[in-house]
Amino acid sequence: MKKQNHMFYQLLCIVTGVILILPIIYAINISFMPQDEILTTNLHFFPSKAGYLENYKIVFMHTRILRFMWNSLVMAGISSIVRVIVASLAAFSFSFFEYRGKKALFALVVGSMIIPADVLVVQNYFTTAELGLINTYLGMMVVFFISGINIFVMRQNFLSYSISLKEAAQVDGCTNFKFYRKILMPSNIPVITTVFISSFVGTWNTYLWPLLVTNTDAMRTAQVAVTMLNNNEGSNYGVGAVMAAAVVILVPSVAVFLLFQRKIVGGVMAGAVKG
Amino acid sequence: MKGKTFGKKLFQSVEPYLYLFPAFLLLIMFAYYPFAKNTVLSFFTVNKFREIREFAGIANYIKVLGDEKFIQSIGNTLVFVVVTVPVSIVVGFGLALLARKRTRTSSLYEAMYSMSMAISVSVVAMIFQLAFNPSMGIVNKLFGTNVSWLTDPKTALAAIIFIQIWANVGYNFIFLLSGLRGMSEDVLESARIDGATGIHLLTRIIIPMVSPTLLFLLMKDIAYAMTTSSFTLILTYPVFHNGGPNGTTETIMSYVYGKGIVGTNYNAAFAATTVGFVLAAVMMALSLVLEKRKVNYD
Amino acid sequence: MKKLLALLLCGAMALGTAACGAGNEGKGGTGSAGSGQASGDTQEVVFWHSFSGATEAALASIINEYNEGRGKEKGIHVELVYQGYEGTDKVMLAYQTKDYENAPDINVGLTSTIPAVMDMGWTVNVEDYMKEDGSEVTKDMFYEPLQQACTYEGQMVAVPFSNSIPLLYYNKEMLEEAGFEKAPETMDELKDYVTALTVEEGGEVKRYGLNMQVKRYQLVEFCVSQGEVSFFGDNQGGREAPMTKIVAGDDGTLKTFLEKLQALIDTGGYKYVEDNINEEFAQGLSAMAIMSSSRMGTLDELMPGKYMTAYLPKVNADDAGGAAVGGSCLNIFNRDDDDRARAAWDVVQYCVSPKSQYTFSTASGYIPVNKGCEDLDEMKKYYEENPQYKVALDQMKEANPLSQEPLDLTYNEINGIITEIMLEFCQGNLGVDETVNKIVERCNDALDEYHSVNG
């Protein structure tokens, strides 16, 4: 009886999951459908023929999507690493030290969470131009090196981390930075991974800033490929191709996500309370 | 001897600031400086190249607050926040409670619940744009309805809210799951022994224990919802060239974008941004008050 | 110490990749966008565009031909860069930051941006080049409406390039079934056709007679085509001098159009919102649609041979203005380098030659800009096989050259205003006179605000 319940429970969980990811399944299905199947008013959730690859062929032949994705990868990867370092250092400062102005400085961090990025684009373009970073990878990445939200989440995490551990470490002659490097960071892999992934996914598909700041085809990012396929004028490759491009772009970010997923949820917040 | 201790003391007092340095350098250069510039400029009349013409005092603010489109956008944004934030947190929490116990198939459904976190905003928008399409999309076909979800003024905002909730759930789920799994089993056991079950267990024990996570998600979601414009811009601007059918999907930030970038009217854009910022700051402050009262870190 | 090292490492990584990126540009592309100096003997020309699909492929093939042939002889090499619709914005940003390096020599920009583009000091007035002795391309090689489309303050400042004109598209079978031999020519006729072609089932419309959302583009077309010719705004629609107000309200054109549109709405078979106009027309959910001629390429793929095009219906039976041609043009920028600007002019001349226009036009569906193109044998054959494209060309030729889209400075804002108010009108929330007043008032406000601030 208990076993049945248990299996039923798991089934329920799985079905809920499938419902939740229906939009993604939908996109994948559309990418394998020819145009006339998509356009009918009949319900076609699954493609009627398997193996229709035209849409994907269009994507790979008519856009330099692989090159664009590489650019996105470089940008997203490096920005995320930098973000983790910058945010964790700041969070470390906020959660383990007492000093003048701490509250005010933290308020500034929270404040930055509500500064909308759109308005800053033009001014940041000018700043970037002054730094001579137009048309460089660094120029594409530099505005993504910081995010107030990440500092906030890491601080939340660190605050739950027992301060007695740090004191114990200090007694052992450990400097603050060593504590950060050797104890704090390694035992907070879940939150680090989460920050990394959410940064990665966030920057993976940005469209406007990289387009604005670079001037050659070689430096375009992934989303540009989709935009190029998504126009209404002239000749149009169809909705299936747009979905195919969306799926292609989706793959790496989902892959990175699944790769690290264990790390996020797998770890119990080590040392959180037990200390 | 003395010099060495002095040096060490100096380092100790400066140390925490050093760790903050890279973050603040970036924040100032790319967030606060441009924002401050925008705010200062909002008190002047500027031309389409953002060059100053003359001092304007609060004229821009008066104009913007008198624009019924702007007021409508504030209303839309508030509705957006009030619906998406609690719902996405509740759904995320519900999923986290469901998935808390580890089973053999855990990794499968955990991955599915958090998947929306791995999809970028533009891809989400495109998928739902197709799904909501009146003649080709799956929603109408499935339910046999004939509603133009994204172009009908009665449904456009609801459609966007739905999309936003879906996009938020993954992130909320992951954090709440971590939070739930991180709860000390001892505390839970002793609470159960004391006779706490069901709702009581949930509200008196579990929620307080994950309150840091809940607060974080609340603040992040509010910040995002108050300053978002992505779905409006991607889904309704190409058709309506402003905030949706009869302005029903215009958010504060999409209004700013429409005025500034599209219409090169930076006078309205800067003033509107500052107003939006103030509103968002108020909501953030309220949440921080909540932190003081209700969140415990141990 | 270690922390410092970590930060340095980070910086090094970032810079290293940046260097890698810059290096890649050198290897992958044909020299980075900004190199102002001619490397060796070749003069670099940077050409920004916003085309994709078959149109982009066509342009790429034209440029390839140039680079391999004439470009090689003259020592000029062109680099094509896709910029999306942000191209013109970027040129303006580059101008503001005096960033001569990261700007193009040639840019494809909407004709409506001409006043803004001419405001920049570095934009070349193309008429100057065309007037020179021995210039390959002269003004009268272009169709008059196209000349006028690129004319500002009396000078033809840009070269027309990817232009289109609105057309009435109709489903051949459906019209035949309903007993019509040809397309409707006036809005009154259009109303009758819509009534006949609409199919209702159980209280719901299963097939609309006509699908068209009235935004700035459509509204302006229906206004300027009235009478002998009409203007939407003062100063000849903003071409003689900057536009300061809307005149379509005073001269009655706006009102007349709205009255005719009201009749259409009253039939119950007119869909006034665009969801996916191309696909719905192809699926047979609408019998007719009014759209730009640039959509023909898409429709050829969606419903080859099943549709045909016709002139935009006249508002009054005796209108002679004809539809206005619109689209994009080529702007040339001189960044303190006369030789380079001349090289760019050479490229432009090549791109508007009859042969190049044939390649471009047949692939994209845009109207060929060079009069010589339609005389080419290949072009004649193409029009025989694809009569729907000839309709666009003919409509343009028959129109009054002064019938043009306005250069209305706050183009985007006006688009938003018109779209919004027209939606309310179609929904039945505003009457004809109210709508006229509201549109005129709000557009004038926008223009006033623009002038007061931008003097």
Question: Can you offer a commentary on this structure?
Answer:
The complex is a heterotrimer of chains A (275), B (298) and C (455). Chain A is mainly α. Chain A has 15 helices and no strands. The model of chain A is unreliable at 266-275 (pLDDT under 50). Chain B is mostly helical and 298 residues long. Chain B has 2 domains: 2-41, no CATH class; 66-294, MetI-like (MetI-like fold, Orthogonal Bundle). In chain B, strands 1-2 form a two-stranded antiparallel sheet. In chain B, a hairpin with a 5-residue loop joins β1 and β2. The radius of gyration of chain B is 24 Å and the shape is flat. With 455 residues, chain C is α/β, with parallel strands linked by helices. Chain C is 49% helix and 15% strand. In chain C, strands 7, 8, 9, 10, 11 and 12 form a 6-stranded mixed sheet that branches. In chain C, α2 packs antiparallel against α16 (354-364), α9 runs parallel beside α12 (253-267) and α19 (411-427) runs antiparallel to α20. The chains are: A mainly alpha (275), B mainly alpha (298), C alpha/beta (455). Chains in contact: A-B, A-C, B-C. At the A-B interface, α1, α2, α5, α6 and α7 of A face α1, α3, α4, α5 and α6 of B.
Oligomer state of the chains in this structure:
heterotrimer
Strand line-up in the sheet with most strands of chain B: 1-2
Helix and strand content put the structural class of chain C at alpha/beta
CATH class term of the largest domain in chain C: Alpha Beta
- CATH homologous superfamily label of the largest domain in chain C: Periplasmic binding protein-like II
Report the mean per-residue pLDDT of chain C as an integer.
86
Structural class of chain B: mainly alpha
Low-confidence stretches of chain B: none
Largest sheet of chain B: 2 strands, antiparallel
CATH topology of the largest domain in chain C: D-Maltodextrin-Binding Protein, domain 2
How many separate helices of chain B?
A: 14
Q: Based on CA inertia axes, which overall geometry of chain B fits? A: flat
Cα-atom radius of gyration of chain C: 24 Å
Largest sheet of chain C: 6 strands, mixed
Count of DSSP strands of chain C: 13
CATH topology of the largest domain in chain B: MetI-like fold
Which of globular, elongated, flat, extended, rod-shaped describes the shape of chain C?
Answer: globular
Distance between the termini of chain C: 57 Å
- Write out the CATH superfamily name of the largest domain in chain B: MetI-like
